[in-house]
Amino acid sequence: MSSSELQPVDRLHGLDALRGIALLLGVVLHASMSYFPVPIWIAADTDSSPVASALFFAIHLFRMTTFFLIAGLFAHMMLGRRGTSGFIRDRLSRIAGPLAVFWTPVLAAIIGGLIWMAAIRNGGTIPTDGPPPPPLTLETFPLTHLWFLWVLLILYVATLILRAPFAIADRDGRWGRSVDRITGALIGPWTPLVLAAPLAVALWMAPNWMPFFGIPTPDTGLVPNAAAMTAFGSAFGLGFLLDRRRDLLARIEGLWPVFTVVALGVGSAAMVMVGGPVPELAPVTDPELKAPLAAIMALAVFTSTFAALSLALRFASGYSAVRRYLADSSYWVYIVHLPLVLVGQILVINETWPWFVKFGVVLGGTLAISLLSYELLIRHSFMGRWLNGCRIPWRRKASPALAPAE
């Protein structure tokens, strides 16, 4: 009997843990960017290694598509439990609210780090001859690493709009049964290939696409790029449908050896095809080269996503107090981590330590500060109820109850 079959159907500990891991891996990803062999980051360090960029590549392949797939599943779960009005109130509070509240201080902290780094490179004084910042427009709005909250809000609105006519027309459940059959047909060893096809087209059509970075991150502009919306929208949509067919999670879990082996092979091939672990910062312009690169990268994205999903279902479906705590804390950690990472990178940039020591210090310091602040300021206060949907009283024994849905 599989591990998921031993769990009550409403306790998706593996998916909740994976969602938290996806957010926490964002800390690792941003910490690694300072140590790329080519400078791509505000605090680019002279101590570098292709290992850092290879780590970034591996994490970036699956992290956000995995997150959005799970977010879609939990969105359907919440709609069923709270109804449309309750869902809208919750999402406005826990997604739109943090974006509105934290965007300004986070951006201010990042700008402060940028000025600090510029002063270091200018011999200790702030340069005065730099270019002026671009004006704020729909295309230039800096969402920072909080872009995922904006994309979530777009997907929630799109889902409610698309769902409404079907919910009204499907009085006898016929539409729903048809959708469930289609979802069942989608799930199998072929699922990553089906999802990769539209993403490959979107990447091929994307202007100025740099294959090493996979899905272009929609962190600038209020209108996300088409490739990102194709990838994250299809992952979210499939997750939404999977909650209607929870039985399919056992099928995905059973395919974990296939998904894992294929993901390792396709991911390795993708890294070779994009030129190895040293990023090429020039966009690919040859259409004959761009097409196979887009295809292999799209397939690598979704094979690695389903490998992560199946492994979590297979090996993390039981309750774990540690995994539950990290999952609960991951939202807060991700919101506050980027300025902390930047400060850490700047503080160690002139040290003579090897890159991996600097990386470890930055990562460890960021996680320590953000987790400590979560425990002291968030978990047991009204902030915990706001961000996570519940406030954990002090000295209360942890309960294996279902974590609040994203």
TrEMBL record:
Q: Which domain of life is it from?
A: Bacteria
Q: Which residues cross the membrane?
A: 21-42, 54-79, 100-120, 140-162, 182-206, 226-242, 254-274, 294-319, 331-349, 355-377
**Which UniProt keywords are given for this protein, alphabetically ordered?**
Membrane, Transmembrane, Transmembrane helix
The Acyltransferase domain, residue ranges: 13-374
Record keyword Transmembrane helix present: yes
A GO molecular function term, named singly, is: acyltransferase activity, transferring groups other than amino-acyl groups
Entry keyword annotation includes Transmembrane:
yes
Please give the name of this protein: Acyltransferase 3 domain-containing protein
Which species is the source of this protein? Brevundimonas basaltis
